[in-house]
Amino acid sequence: MTDGFSVPGPAAADTLAASVARIAELADRLGLSHGGVFDVQQLSEASGVPADVVTALLEGRRAGEPDLQARFLQRLDLLRCTRVKPNGRRYTQQEIADGAGMSRQQAGALINGDRRPTMEHCDAIQRFFGVHAGFLTAEDPEALNGALLRTEQRLLKDWSGEGDPLERLLLDHGVRGIAWRAAQLPTDKHRDKVTEWLDMLLESVKPTRASESAESGAPGGVNQTET
Question: Where does the HTH cro/C1-type domain start and stop, copy by copy (predicted)?
Answer without folding.
Answer: 89-136
